[in-house]
Amino acid sequence: MQCSRYDLQITIVKGLPCTVYNKTYDNGETFRLDCRTQCTCQNGTYACASLCPQENISPQGLCRHPRLVEVPGQCCREWMCDNVNMERPPNCEALVTPWAECSSQCGLGLSRRMSNANEACKPNNETRLCQIRPCHSPPLVNAKYARHHHIRKGHECKATIKSTTPVRLKFGDCRSRKTFHPKRCGAACPSSGSGGSGIVCAPELSTTVKVEFLCRSPVEGHDRLDGAVPGDDLWEPVHRPFSATADDYVHSVYVDVEWIVKCTCRRSTD
Question: pLDDT digits over 14-68, tens only?
Fold first, then answer.
């Protein structure tokens, strides 16, 4: 069959690139302005989102004089609160160490650091709750849709997974007043090769949030965290409306919690 001069010509139109600070990015390309800001080029313009969303949410309630502080070795700044209306010594140099890794690879754990944000300007141990993933992680696909959904090869190990249903944070006899959609790191994946190491996922970027918990017992201070049992699930699915009064959750306490922003997966060297 011969083609006429009127044959249809198909032209593929590509989206426009973006030029940001003398660097050019292709349409659809994701890039970072800095360690706190991630952007995506969209046909000549770009949209950005914060990788440290908790920096924009000032803690309320019992947090006095909230302020953002830099943490060595960590990109996201963290909110620091003064427990009392204090005046620090004029020659007090701020000392805040990075948070240690979560003490548990699955389930509830604890993370600690040293800080001198107190009236005497003396280094004190600070503790926060953390959970990299539940010990019994839910599947990537809801069972309702699993029959019709196929996970593509290479996507079995997803680094960062956000809860699709609201949960309350819990430890001991305490439950968070609000519900959340936290993120977790993917479960460890076996190696596809023979004799190779598996894939492990861990937090790459996280921040610290101060969460209000309602508790049944009136314990205060660090003694409150004695009720945190390692390996328990920090997240409790919301099955019914929460009535603090009816369930005797009447004692309010604010607790630091590690909030995962992004995880990364690497090949295990073990």
Answer: 789 999 888 899 999 999 888 888 899 998 888 888 888 877 777 765 566 677 7
3-state secondary structure of 218: coil
**Amino acid at the residue 72:** P
Locus of tokens 């922003």: 261
**Strand residues in 123-234 grouped as ranges (E):** 124-130, 160-162, 167-171, 174-176, 183-185, 199-215
The gap from C-alpha 60 to its chain's centroid, in whole angstroms, comes to 20
Closest CA to 34 of 17, 53, 48, 19: 48
> Three-state SS for 171?
strand
Tens of pLDDT, residues 236-270: 998 877 776 667 888 888 899 999 998 998 877 65
Which of 185, 145, 144, 181 minimizes the C-alpha distance to 164? 181
Tokens of 260: 């995962």
Contact by Cβ (8 Å): 197, 268: yes
Q: What strand order describes the sheet that includes 124-130?
A: 109-115, 124-130, 251-267, 199-215, 174-176, 167-171, 235-237
CB contact at 8 A, 200 and 236: no
Parallel, antiparallel, or unpaired: how do β-strands 37-42 and 30-34 relate? Answer: antiparallel
Residue 139: both structure tokens together: 């599947």
C-alpha span between 268 and 196 (Å, rounded): 9
Instruction: Report d(CA 156, CA 167) in Å as an integer.
Output: 24
Amino acid identity at 66 = P
**pTM check: above 0.85:** no
